[in-house]
Structure of Na+/H+ antiporter subunit E:
Amino acid sequence: MSELGGQRRWLDGLGWVALYALIWALFTEGAGWTLGVPSILLAAGLSLWLGLRPWHPSLAALPGFLGFFLGKMAAGAWDVALRALHPKRPLQPAWLDYTLTSSSSQVRLVLSALVGLLPGTLASQVEGDRMRVHVLDERQPWETTVHSLERRLEQLLAPGDRP
């Protein structure tokens, strides 16, 4: 292994450890490090063994992504509150297919996870270039919102398909 390859692997390992430690801290509210540290190291080692590289998001795209996503989450919370206060508000639930435009597996993975936090949507599976989505009301512009999220994730996670 070349010296540059060894440095890259070391940096990738640190990236995975940092990411998994952050996830552990968020989910456990900073507790349980006796179990967390070995789990984090095992997950990081497995990621390296599988040849995965940690994500390197574009810091320039991060503010726009956060603004868009937090705005949509607030809109979703408002919609749920209105539906709770007005239970007769019409719904037209449906299972629909969304055609994915990104070829990045990272973008597809994160998109499928984040769609459930958008107003009235939930992704159930990705198969080929299609993502199955459940919507509370198919008359709402859910597809435009999901497409905007996918574009923003593409800018955030795969700008120019960096190595």
